[in-house]
């Protein structure tokens, strides 16, 4: 077929209308928002913050509005194109609303998080609320996406017509999918349970699998534990529901620390207690609650001496224990070297 005949067959009016619609989308997305952006810069940082968060949904809605105005003006009539464009506009509106609500959840999260500071020393209440906010934000986003996806599917006439016939098979499919995804579903419910009951919170100090670390991140499916040596332990969130673990900051961060010495029976315990008191009184990590020395065990060669001290959190307790251990050892080496563990050998005279 000659090119001239192909050109004659093309509906140039129809193509020009589609071209106008495409131009309207560009205008709504990039040109009209310019009339909003510049005034926002003059209204202060708070207004600009909201504009930066809602700029995407607003540009999206402007595009749909301008496209709809052009569509009405161009008048496609009762053609299939008109029906397709109407359905397409309906889907775009659902997507825009979904985008708006997801942004709103993020803005609400930022607003609530600004009220609580987890970097300060007394942050127990703040960590509790921040954990709930972050987990609930993920749950809300999942629910919004599920509802919007369902709304898009229901906008198709064929799906609505076969809805009743699919209802019976949906139960069977749901059971099969439930068995296939039971681990994932269990993790999601575990995340919801943790957000409500809070056996762990962000920045909690925990002992899990023999590792000491802090809760760095909590999602709907897993928890990130930052180990003391900068490693990350990734744990399925259901493990914190099903298995026992130690939480050193469940009620408060205050903690007791112990230092064990194995000394000779000749060591003067009163002098050792005075030296321990002198050390902790000048130490910035001691919280002035507990300080003492006790003999906790005896063997045929040494006695077990325990120094008990307290600190505001586990990190300070660790540093305090190390410093006390070092200073007491130096004290014993200088003042009472004979009190350190020694082995005695009794060499008796041979019987004559």
Protein model, in words:
The protein is α+β, with helices and mostly antiparallel strands. Among the domains are: 3-115, no CATH class; 255-339, Alpha-Beta Plaits (2-Layer Sandwich), CATH 3.30.70.100. Helix content is 59%, strand content 14%. It is built from twelve helices and eight strands. The protein has a five-stranded antiparallel sheet. Mean pLDDT is 76; it is low at 4-13 and 162-170.
Topology:
Elements: H1 3-9, H2 12-31, H3 34-42, H4 45-74, H5 80-113, H6 124-154, H7 157-161, H8 163-180, H9 182-197, E1 205-208, E2 211-218, E3 222-227, E4 232-236, H10 239-242, E5 246-247, E6 255-263, H11 269-281, E7 291-298, E8 303-311, H12 314-335
Antiparallel strand pairs: 1-2, 1-5, 2-3, 3-4, 6-8, 7-8
Structural features:
8 strands, three-stranded antiparallel sheet, five-stranded antiparallel sheet, single chain, alpha+beta, elongated, Alpha-Beta Plaits, 352 residues, 12 helices, 59% helix, 14% strand
């Amino acid at each position: 077929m000659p090119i001239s005949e192909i050109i004659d067959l093309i509906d140039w009016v129809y193509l020009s209308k589609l071209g106008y619609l495409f131009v309207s989308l560009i205008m709504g997305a990039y040109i009209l928002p310019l009339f909003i952006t510049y005034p926002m810069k003059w209204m202060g940082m708070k207004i600009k913050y909201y504009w930066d968060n809602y700029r995407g949904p607003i540009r999206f809605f402007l595009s749909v509005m301008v496209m709809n105005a052009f569509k009405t003006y161009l008048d496609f009539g009762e053609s299939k194109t008109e029906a397709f464009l109407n359905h397409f506009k309906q889907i775009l509106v659902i997507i825009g609303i979904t985008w708006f609500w997801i942004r709103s959840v993020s803005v609400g999260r930022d607003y609530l998080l600004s009220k609580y500071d987890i970097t300060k020393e007394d942050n127990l209440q703040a960590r509790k609320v921040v954990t709930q906010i972050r987990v609930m934000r993920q749950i809300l986003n999942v629910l919004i996406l599920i509802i919007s996806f369902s709304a898009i599917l229901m906008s198709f006439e064929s799906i609505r017509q076969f809805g009743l016939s699919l209802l019976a098979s949906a139960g069977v499919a749901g059971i099969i999918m439930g068995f296939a995804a039971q681990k994932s579903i269990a993790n999601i419910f575990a995340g919801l349970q943790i957000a409500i009951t809070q056996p762990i919170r962000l920045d909690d100090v925990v002992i899990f699998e023999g590792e000491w670390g802090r809760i760095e991140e909590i999602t709907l499916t897993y928890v990130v534990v930052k180990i003391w040596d900068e490693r990350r332990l990734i744990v399925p969130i259901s493990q914190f529901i099903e298995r026992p673990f130690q939480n050193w900051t469940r009620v408060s961060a205050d903690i007791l620390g112990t230092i064990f010495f194995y000394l000779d029976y000749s060591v003067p315990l009163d002098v050792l207690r005075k030296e321990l008191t002198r050390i902790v009184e000048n130490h910035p990590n001691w919280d002035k609650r507990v300080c003492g020395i006790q003999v906790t065990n005896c063997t045929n060669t040494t006695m077990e001496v325990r120094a008990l001290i307290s600190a505001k959190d586990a990190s300070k307790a660790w540093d305090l224990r190390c410093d006390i251990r070092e200073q007491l050892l130096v004290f014993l080496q200088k003042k009472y070297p004979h009190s350190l563990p020694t082995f005695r050998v009794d060499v008796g005279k041979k019987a004559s």
